[in-house]
Amino acid sequence: MPPTLLTLWALGALLILGMRVAVLRRIAENETDPLRSRRGFRLVQVLISGSSLTWAFGIPMFAYYGSGLELTVLALVGTSMFVGVLLMNRAIPVAALFHTTMLAAGLLVAAWLIARWDAWPVLLLILVYAAVLMRSVLAHDRAFVRTAIAELERTESEATVRMLLSEYEVQASDWLWTVGPKGNLREVSDRLAQAFGRPAAELEGQPFIDQIGNGERRDLLADALAQRQAFRDKLVRIELDGEIRFWRLSARPRIDGRMTGVARDVTDTQIIEERVSYMAHFDSLTGLANRYMFNERLRDALAQHGSNSTRVALFYLDLDDFKGINDTQGHMFGDRLLREVGARLEQDVRCEDLVARLGGDEFAVIVVTNSGDGMLIERAHRFLAILREPFEIDGQTVISTASVGVARCSKKPCEADELMRRADLALHAAKAKGRDQVALFDRGLDREMQERRRIEHELREAIKNDELRVHYQPVIDLDNGATVAYEALVRWEHPQRGMLAPLQFLTVAENTGLIIPLGDWVIRRALNEMAKWDGDFRVAINLSPSQIRSAHLLNSVTDALAESGMDPCRVEFEITEHVILEHNDVALATLMKLREMGMSIALDDFGTGYSSLSYLRRFPLDRIKIDREFVKGLGDSVSARAIVSAITRLADAMGIPTTAEGVELPDQLDLLRKLGCNEAQGYLIQEPVAAIRLGDPLDEANRMPELYGSVLDYRKARQTALARRRKRSA
Ligand code: C2E
Ligand code: CA
Ligand code: CA
After folding, report:
1. Which atom of ligand 1 is the closest one to the Cα of 489?
2. Which of 227, 524, 542, 646 has the most CB atoms lying inside 10 A of its own CB?
3. Domain of 289?
4. What is the domain count for the chain?
5. Residues 424, 507: one domain?
6. How many whole angstroms separate alpha carbon 681 and alpha carbon 476?
């Protein structure tokens, strides 16, 4: 081959190679890809096509001058160039097609020059090969363009979303967060950094979980992040500068292994929600569970223990005279006391027990235990003991006691309502025993309850069916034995059970409100019956506390007076100490009104209650009835005698007459007279009887011989005493 020709070809090839190297270096140096510009792309196309051209000319040239082994080497080089370069240029189809055409032409010419028509199989092979290559270049190009477009579209939409989100981030109270595959914060935005109150650079790469307060919520979040699960509105607690904030987080995993999500500060709504939930579940005064939460927990405890529900014990506590404390010391003081009581109970239970305030002065404790009834009662006594300790409130010492009802379920599973009912019954039983008492529910209480229900039902019917009666017991003047009054005492002529005494049904009447119609009926009946009798005696009628509290009483008394024509001055009402002590304004006003109308008020059962004589001054009483307990003790108890003597003397000093109740023995009658008592009443004189039997001398049952004897003796003694006095004065 002539050296000039070879040099020329080599120089051309080197020039093009040099230019390509320069372009590649520019690509490497500049981050910006010159291929992205149209001009740069064209330049690359031209350079590639230039290389193709050098080979397209070179190969026939070498074939023309070469021979033997040289030609075999040339065939190898030519084939490599044909296919290998194509492989590199396939992403630039124009260059690839040009290369294929040019090299195919060069190879065809070379083969022709070497073997003329004898090379026809090689010529054919080159043509077929070129066609196949071109097809594959075109197919590849179409596929490449499709992927490129898809990729472009994807980045474009991603950019749009990004733009929208960043817009949203600026405006809304929410912000974006991203974590890497290991849960470390990535791409920390300014807003997120601001929310955390720390520089973005400091947060970058920190585990997200570390920024979140401990607790169950944090663990749930950690799980979700670790498992790369999408989640929505997960609530977490974050402490920022000592301030508790609540965030709601949502997130979804990304293809690149990161997770991106939104965080929203919901502290304000969360605080309101928590407060509402708190108010719904806790008592605002004591901070204890309220009735709602108590019911929920009781139901849960019973459900949890299922057939083992005997383990669930309920203590139902009620303060003994809370109303009194509230009335005398004021509501603020009462509230303080309730708070203290709640705190003491709370301190005295295990943390798994629940203390609740059910309202007013009622508390309940749920205890789950294996211990037997004895232990439960002991537990209840402990509650009473801690409440019995004096309370220091506002520098004042108060003593308050409570009553406790204890109940547990029987063997078979029971409902919360049933357990509550039992505890309530037990509490009532405890209250009935007096102050500071404990009662445990048993079947007997249930039976009593049913009995009370039955009585209530029958008593309603009894009023309608005219089964009530009034019996009268005379009261005599101890000076002359004359009957000065009749006390009206109600009876119930029960169709099956015979004549019932008031104690057998009055409590039920009192508790159910039936006492009001019953009391009205007694007033009317007593006044009507007694009005028919000649004589100047009083009619004494018992009033129960709730009757006196009822605004209705004055009307029914006025009506009964009008109907019977009875002189109000002959009517006396008997009340008990509680009515005066209760300080109920309505009740006291009613009593004053009755007095203004001319009727008198007697204090019944004196000495059984608080026995505080101070209230004798608080309310103007017309009579004191000394309770029969003292009369009973007169014979052998020195203290009873001392008490009766004290009462009569004090009453005498205040100008209030006294009546002794329950006189059964002649000695008692004598003693009472000596102690200065004014009047007496009792079986000795006469038992209470129906009106028609009053004063019937033939009625043996009512006119006991001893009684007759005693009263006659007494009258005789009195006459002789008077005679002696007269004689002395003479
Ligand atoms: P109370 O007001 O103390 O009435 C006197 C009670 O003593 C009556 O009982 C009477 O039968 C009983 N008694 C009378 N003399 C003797 C005696 O020598 N020895 C004994 N051991 N007892 C005697 P009763 O009739 O069973 O009434 C019981 C209570 O029921 C009454 O006690 C009164 O508090 C109440 N009560 C009776 N009737 C009425 C009524 O119409 N309305 C109201 N609110 N209460 C009534
Ligand atoms: Ca009475
Ligand atoms: Ca009495």
Report:
1. 38
2. 542
3. 282-441
4. 4
5. no
6. 6
